[in-house]
Design brief:
With 83 residues, the protein is α+β, with helices and mostly antiparallel strands. The protein contains 2 helices and 3 strands. It has a 3-stranded antiparallel sheet with strand order 2-1-3, sandwiched between helices.
C-alpha cells in the first residue's frame, strides 16, 4: 500500500477548490511530513498503487473530486440554462 497526499487550492488563488495529488509515499509518516509542509487543507489516502493515474481514479471512486467543504453539494442536481 502507498500513501497519497491530496492538497486543496486556497481561496483567492486560481487553484481555489481544485485538488492536487502528491505521492506516492511509502509510509504514512513521510506523507504526513510532506502534507505538513504544504499550505492549506490536505488529506492523506492509502491506495494499492504507485501509479498516479490509478490513484486519481481511486480518488474519484471515493468521491474526492470537489473541495472537501462542498462535498454535500456533489449530490445536488445541476440545472443548465436552456437556449
Amino acid at each position: 500500500m502507498y500513501y497519497w497526499v491530496v492538497a486543496w487550492g486556497r481561496e483567492g488563488t486560481k487553484m481555489q477548490g481544485k485538488r492536487a495529488l502528491y505521492g506516492p509515499f511509502n509510509t504514512e509518516t513521510s506523507a504526513q511530513d510532506y502534507a505538513d509542509a504544504l499550505i492549506g487543507h490536505t488529506d492523506i489516502h492509502k491506495f494499492p498503487t504507485r501509479n498516479e493515474a490509478k490513484a486519481t481514479r481511486f480518488l474519484k471512486e471515493k468521491g474526492v473530486s470537489a473541495h472537501p467543504d462542498k462535498w454535500e453539494h456533489q449530490l445536488e442536481r445541476v440545472s443548465h440554462k436552456k437556449d
